[in-house]
Write a structure and sequence with these properties.
Its main location: membrane. The chain has 169 residues and is mainly alpha-helical. Helix content is 61%, strand content 5%. The chain has two domains: 1-16 and 118-169, no CATH class; 28-108, no CATH class. It has helices spanning 3-9, 18-50, 70-80, 82-107, 111-116, 130-143, 158-163; strands at 119-122, 165-168. The chain has a two-stranded antiparallel ribbon. The longest helix is centred in the first third of the chain and has 33 residues, at 18-50. The radius of gyration is 22 Å and the shape is elongated.
Length: 169
Amino acid sequence: MDQKWIEKMLDEKHYAGIVSRLVAFFYDLVALVVTFIVVGNVMTMWLVVQSNSPMTEDVSPMGALSGVNLTELRAYIYEHEFHLMVINWIVIVLALLLIQYIFPMFKRQTIGMKILGLYLKDEKAQDITKKQYLKRELFKLIMFPTIFQMFGKEKRPLYDRRAKVYLLK
């Protein structure tokens, strides 16, 4: 690609500002909360059906949560069937990782970025690779407070500079 075109495409006026980043972050959090609620409810029904608790002897899979005291069931599972609780949390964490990191790696956009029309480019104004996306996300986890460096001269957070990517609108 022509150097003039690269400079024009990566001009500061196209950078995603802090408001765009925070709104995208908000949408990502909403997606994670919804995922957590849905997967949590499904896994709670699974716990009721799988448990050998005396409280769930006559519970059918279709009416898994009807008539079951979930507080007592949770205490029973923690005491007698802790492996079910471990499986429950492993599935929930895997679902959240899928939504936040694995699925976005294919298009290199999180849900919030898609909603706002933000996209990532490398220093040559080309789409970033999966490796660059993963690098950026790992840097973002470690260096999230550096987002406030956007108010300075550079206009890009440290994690974007280290990953050599540009978040553009």
